[in-house]
Amino acid sequence: MTINPTKLPESFSKLSASELNGIIKRIKAKLGNRLLILGHHYMSDAVIAHADRRGDSFGLAKIAAETQAEYIVFCGVHFMAETADIVTRAEQQVFIPDPTAGCFLADCARIEEVKAAWQVLRSVSDMRIVPVTYVNSGADLKAFCGENGGLVCTSSNAAAALNWAFGRGDKVFFFPDQHLGRNTAYRKGIALDEMLLWSSDLSASNSEDVIRRAKVILWDGFCIVHQEFDSDYISRLRREDPQVRIIVHPECDFDVAQSADDMGSTAYIIDKIKNAPVGSHWAVATEKNLVNRLKEDYPDRRIEILQTFEPACQSMAQISLARLAFLLAQLERGNLINRVAVDERYAGAARIALKRMLELNA
Ligand code: 13P
Ligand code: SF4
Question: How far apart are CA 232 and CA 220, in angstroms?
Fold first, then answer.
């Protein structure tokens, strides 16, 4: 993975939004089909307005795998751009407006720790264990899954990924997001006492015997943004309006997911509200930019965020209009900054794990 953090020069940080919009539009028109701008649903309105395609992690990975564009500019966080690089061809290049835009959740699992846990799991059980990584993870973890008979999943195909894994093994080792793993496995009928939250300390609650009995071993990662939602708030809303529909992202914790009416990826949430009746009331547990855009797009439904404040993803917010304009201005000059190029040591095996996901019938 090559990171080339380039400082935003004052000549760009001082430009007005309309000047930045003008630069972006001009370069997009000039580069035409050579350039594809992808935008995750958590981008600000200012940035997403320039995206050729919008989507959730899965949708954007699929678009990246199919595009012919020479330059793919990924308006999202780093692991998403890495995924795009892995699934595109060698002659295509992926860029990100700010290469330091990481993901708290992806950083919860490091390859050395995961490998150490894998050794312990393999040594205490002769059952077949299939590793599954959430796409919010480094390319090295995706490669680990590719090498060990596992796959990648996103929030939109985690159930299908678990089915795939249980078709090939007796246990699933799921990382880094414990909540997506737990919420998805529980919906599949796996009881909470058949799931184990991994800890390297083999104490009584996590003994070799407990490991042997567990069907799903969960890493202890989480998303700080989605931990801001709580089930007490859901009870309060339901008291105020029994008709309210609660829809949450599966990165929310178990209580929130259990108290909700529906759960799904960012694209699923948008689709559900788009197709909801006029006048319906929705409380949504996910990042504020998505929820605020839903409010603007569907003023004839009552839409609110499932909290008294607006949880925001600071990493996504790093992708600003000024950074997008600056990156495009560099690409126009042939100055290929902020390229996301996954190390060949990981790309091959990570591609196998991603290909397994892209072939799932989710
Ligand atoms: P989606 O795949 O649902 O877009 O989620 C990505 C993410 O990072 C949510 O926090
Ligand atoms: Fe990562 Fe959470 Fe931000 Fe999604 S919302 S990109 S999981 S930190």
Answer: 23
**Looking at residue 208, what is its pLDDT?**
86
Structural domain includes residue 1: no
What's the token pair of residue 88? 């595109």
Burial of 18 (0-12, 13-18, 19+ CB in 10 A): exposed
Ligand 1: which of 62, 154, 248 to mutate, most ligand atoms within 8 Å of CB? 154
Q: Whose CA is nearest to atom 2 of ligand 1?
A: 57
Write the residue with the smallest CA distance to atom 6 of ligand 2: 103
Residue 25's domain spans which residues?
10-102+315-343
Please indicate, yes or no, if residue 211 is contained in any of the structural domains: yes
Q: Does residue 2 sit within a domain?
A: no
Q: Same domain, yes or no, for 157 and 82? A: no
| For ligand 2, mutation pick of 105, 178, 252, 319 (most atoms within 8 Å of CB) | 105
| Cα(255) to centroid(ligand 1), Å | 19
pLDDT at 1: 41
Cα–Cα distance for residue pair 224/311, rounded to 1 Å: 9
Q: Is residue 30 classed exposed, middle or buried when 0-12, 13-18 and 19+ CB atoms within 10 A define those classes?
A: exposed
85 and 132, same domain (yes or no): no
Ligand 2 atom closest to residue 223's alpha carbon, by position in its atom list: 2
Q: What spacing in Å lies between the alpha carbon of 165 and ligand 1's midpoint?
A: 21
Q: Is the pTM of this model over 0.70?
A: yes
- A 10 A CB-CB count for 314 gives 11
Residue ranges of the chain whose pLDDT lies below 70: 1-6, 204, 362
How far, in Å, from the CA of 71 to the mean position of ligand 2?
A: 25
> Are 333 and 281 contained in the same domain?
no
Query: How many independent structural domains does the chain possess?
Result: 3
Query: Which ligand gives the minimal distance to the CA of 38?
Result: 1
Q: Are residues 212 and 133 in the same domain?
A: yes
